[in-house]
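lol ok so funny story. i was supposed to be doing the assay writeup but got distracted and ended up predicting the structure for this chain instead. priorities right. anyway since i did it might as well share w the group, maybe its usefull for someone
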Amino acid sequence: MNLGQWIGLIAIVLSLYILWQIREVLLLMFAAVVLATTLNRLAKRFQRFGMKRGVAVLLAVAIFLAGVVGFFWLIVPPFAQQFQELTNQVPKGFERFNVWLDALRTRIPDELVPYIPDINSLIQQAQPFVNRVLGNSFAFVSGSLEVVLKILLVLVLTGMILVDPLAYRKVFIRLFPSFYRRRVEGILNKCEVSLGGWITGAFIAMFVVALMSLVGLSVLGIKAALALAILAGFLNLIPNLGPTMSVVPAMAIALLDDPWKVVAVLILYVVIQQVESSFITPIVMAQQVSLLPAVTLIAQLFFVTFFGFLGLFLALPLTVVAKIWLQEVLIKDVLDEWGNNHRKETEFVIVSESPGKNDNWTSENPDINEKPSIDDDILKQED
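and the output, tada:
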């Protein structure tokens, strides 16, 4: 390797190191791009009705903010009330458990009484776990401020991109060599179409899951059914792991009414997710985004390992965009064209002898016997 190649290699390594160090910032920027793409599609729909660009963008942002406020308004108060009631029921549950242990000691032989656990000893054994949970709670509260700042950063970036998306698009395209910029523009168009398809399919699946959860929980008589249904629909954005996360608060609230409702809620959520994965996703997502289930799961594990919860939440759109770039750049532009530059095209050129000065053949009075025969020459060459 010469000096220029060594410098290029060192520059590539340093660039990859810098990108790895700022990976969280890049992920937040991608989240802003996804949100801006969603709001931009909504604004374009309003523009079809004759609205100006500025009015359409403001209306789209207002709808988004109203949705966020409505989500927290419907979710937080019922959950706070139910979990406050659950907290009050926990000491009563311990008292009932202690009474049941005392009754059990009177019915069993005296030899087995020492093996019956005492509620006080159980509390002492659980004390380290409680302290650990409280410590994690304080860490969670301290990390909440960081989460709020990241959300504000995403919202600010989204607003900046929405003001003039073409300007940011041109800046990104100019990062590539001039001969490849038209190709990059086509790839970005495909990414925008695929992201729009994923967003449409995701919202349809969210609505169906939330509606089925609301009907099922209302039939079972579970409190805060609307809040639980909205939460189930929102967590459906996270494939595979989202349904598991949504069933936990539903089972906890069901425990306040009757123990059998916990099993009923678990069965209800399993049925809903089977319907969603077997019918809704194949019908909706197959027409919008074609991703193999194994690829989706591997992508989730990869992004949650390197980027945390935000990577898990954005795993699907990241996979959609990464698939297009790999398919268009690596497969079509590199692998499919590998060796094509060395392919030579063969041209068959026929050269005929022109008549000499002493030949009797002329264009005005041709002699068929003396005219050079091109067919004969070709046949001789083939022989």
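Residues 53-107 form the longest helix (55 residues). The chain is about 80% helix and 0% strand.
back to the writeup now i swear
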